[in-house]
Write a structure and sequence with these properties.
366 residues; alpha/beta; TIM Barrel; eight-stranded parallel beta barrel; six-stranded antiparallel sheet; Chitinase_insertion_sf
Length: 366
């Protein structure tokens, strides 16, 4: 009986060694996708430690992770491409995204066999394309059982990553996930223990709190603080830590985009001003580059609100809420002071001549 017990202990310790060998000192990261308007070769990867390539898909018939034929070349060459400028940059293949079909992920996670298909195919795909890790963006589990199954998926994924590393002798793949800004969503709690145990870190999506398609007054969609409530990045960070996820497992998300709102009265253009919907088409989303152009072309009045940590501008009946350089610097400083692992941004092509990316890197420092 002693030999099997010692063997089990040895492999358990080896697994832990492989797991903790992936620990990162800092994460200065950003997401990129092929249709963003920015070629991967144009990314200034010297500004980042980690880059997420988005998004791989889930085949609902096979429960395998796949990349569309149109994305095969940019995905397969992504790591080599960004490492030309920054050889130490780490890359992760992100799976899912906001447009993914929630039911497919719920179905996959509900059965051991389908979870295994997902996990095995993700590891194989990441290795074949040269990625250093995998990132799950399931937005969002919609029942208590789906949250439980998410926990099972993460635990099994971590075990498979460790086994693959032991078998091949390669460094273990990083394993991360993009989650809601707080540890509960619509009354459902994330599986804290599997998250803390099985993921290298989680990306907190501390944005899209409000948007002009439904809100009736102007809001910051990514405020760091909320004096009147709990809709803020700082609340989310504190809630995750209180729930049991350590600060070194948390990466604070920032948007490189904003939303344009249509004011009811051009003379009432502060926070919480009445609006009649988005300005322009769709949801009113604008990249930071587009926002800077709007400010310049329309001589818009720009305001930085230090109380909530957000920028906004207005011209005529158009009001735009966004993160400018002051907001980004303050958020990154907050993340560092709180002992978080780092920050990430969605998405790199939305920046304006690397203005926000440079500001974030400078604010964190060495």
């Amino acid at each position: 009986m002693a030999f099997p017990l010692l063997s089990l202990l040895f492999f358990s310790l080896l697994s832990l060694q492989f797991h903790f060998s992936t620990a990162q000192n800092v994460v200065k990261s950003v997401y990129w996708f092929p249709d963003s308007g920015l070629e991967a070769s144009a990314i200034d990867s010297t500004l980042f430690t980690h880059l997420f390539c988005a998004f791989a898909d889930l085949n609902s018939n096979t429960n395998q992770v796949v990349v569309s034929s149109s994305n095969n070349a940019p995905f397969s060459q992504f790591t080599k491409t960004v490492q030309l400028k920054n050889p130490s940059a780490k890359t992760l293949l992100s799976i899912g995204g906001g447009n993914a079909i929630k039911a497919d992920y719920a179905s996959m996670a509900s059965r051991p066999g389908s979870r295994k298909s997902f996990i095995d195919s993700s590891i194989k795909l990441a290795r074949s394309y040269g990625f250093h890790g995998l990132d799950l963006d399931w937005e969002y589990p919609q029942s208590a059982s789906e949250m439980t199954n998410l926990g099972l998926l993460l635990n099994e994924w971590r075990a498979a990553v460790a086994t693959e590393a032991q078998t091949t002798g390669k460094p273990p793949l990083l394993l991360t996930a993009a989650f809601y800004y707080a540890p509960s969503i619509n009354g459902l709690n994330y599986p804290i223990q599997p998250i803390a145990k099985s993921l290298d870190w989680i990306n907190l999506m501390a944005y899209d709190f409000y948007d002009p398609t439904w809100a009736k007054v102007t809001h910051s969609h990514a405020a760091l603080y909320d004096p009147a409530g709990q809709v803020s990045g700082s609340y989310g960070v504190e809630a995750w830590i209180t729930a049991g996820v350590g600060p070194k497992k948390l990466v604070l998300g920032m948007p490189f985009y904003g939303y344009a709102w249509r004011l009811v009265d051009a003379n009432n253009h502060g926070l919480l001003a009445p609006v009649s919907g988005p300005a322009g088409s769709g949801s009113g989303a604008m990249t930071y580059g587009q926002i800077r152009a709007f400010i310049s072309q329309n001589r818009a009045t720009e305001v930085y609100n230090a109380t909530i940590v957000s920028n906004y501008c207005s011209a005529g009946t158009t009001w735009i809420g966004f993160d400018g350089t002051q907001s980004v610097a303050t958020k990154v400083s907050y993340a560092k002071q709180k002992g978080l692992l780092g920050y990430f941004a969605w998405h790199v092509a939305a920046d304006n001549n690397w203005e926000l990316s440079n500001q974030a890197k400078q604010a964190w420092g060495a």
